[in-house]
Amino acid sequence: MLDLVGEHAALQPALDEAVQEVLDSAAFIQGPAVGQFATELGDYLGGAHIIPCANGTDALTLALLSLNLPAGAEIILPAFTYVATLEAAALLGLKPVLVDIRPDTFNIDPAAVEAALTPRTGAIVAVHLFGQCADLAALRAISIRHGVALIEDNAQAIGATFQFENGETAYAGAVGEIGTTSFFPSKNLGGLGDGGALLTRDPARAILLRQLANHGQSQKYHHQHIGLNSRLDTLQAALLRVKLRQLPTNTAARQAVAARYDAALTTVAGITIPARDSRSSHVFHQYTIRLEEPSRRDTLQHFLKSCGVPTMIYYPLPVHAQPAYAYLGYRAGQFSVAERLCGAVLSLPVHPLLTEEQQDYIVERVEDFFDN
Ligand SMILES: *Cc1c(COP(=O)(O)O)cnc(C)c1O
């Protein structure tokens, strides 16, 4: 699915140098690379404030923590996402309220969000799934109209942009009160270990988030808030600075791979290629096809595996079917779009180093499968 060894080989001298610099400085926590990386990432994302932290799940936890919500406040989020989106809310004693997704983009359905609002709603968490923005126009309007904070879980769509009706363009993560992201190695901007960050345009919130991520302290040994120990290691920041320079090229490479898949697979009867929202760019964290006959999905995956083609199922279960979240009391059938998709989706390799030959081979094997 990925060729991280290949990607890192091309960057080897710069990565070595970054590691050596941190070793030499011995400033392993909050060293200069952390601030430098935050500034560079902020510049890349249109000048937002970036608050690095330990991982993308902590970023979500910190975002919710900074809203200072009463216990039991309801957090609206999509039923089709990685479990971390839910976990952060649940761990804070907030109540995850799931809503269904759109069948075309797989992103949270704004109409379902609106229907789920109550006086107890504390925040809406939108996920920009697989690399494409959720309907930020509708979500921002709902957030403003109802005075409810919008948080963007942007672990999968770093660098994606969304164009509003008035022509305004914004980066994913920079539209709501807070954006969160992850530098887990397999993400589009992956570190060599865990890492994450928050994004905000509000300088006061940036200060609060920075304190919350560092034991709630305003200065050393002065603790204003109950916070977390959630800092990005200097070493990861130094390595991520190198990888950030490669991000625009890698994103373009992913998009080129996706365009070739689109052209080749659109004529294959039996699958639906990823829907594009014309207002959003797509950075293709995943290239996820949908089978018209879900009963054939696992057979296709096994067939491709036997041909040496790796694939993944994101996600095999909707979050409400996970045992840990049974206490929320949802029933099978409540989020029918998410449930159907879990049985019908398959993600194909879409990494920046995928060659045209490899891709042609993958496409031919998919064609073979549907011809038989
Ligand atoms: C990866 C991911 C996270 C969590 O990030 P970690 O850095 O692994 O904690 C959260 N939300 C989504 C949608 C993700 O894909």
From TrEMBL:
InterPro entries listed in its UniProt record: DegT/StrS_aminotransferase (IPR000653), PyrdxlP-dep_Trfase (IPR015424), PyrdxlP-dep_Trfase_major (IPR015421), PyrdxlP-dep_Trfase_small (IPR015422)
Pfam families (alphabetical): DegT_DnrJ_EryC1
Gene3D superfamilies in the cross-refs: Aspartate Aminotransferase, domain 1, Type I PLP-dependent aspartate aminotransferase-like (Major domain)
Presence of the UniProt keyword Membrane in the record: no
Swiss-Prot/TrEMBL keywords: Pyridoxal phosphate
Record family assignment: Belongs to the DegT/DnrJ/EryC1 family.
Protein name (record): Cell surface polysaccharide biosynthesis protein
Protein encoded by which gene: porR
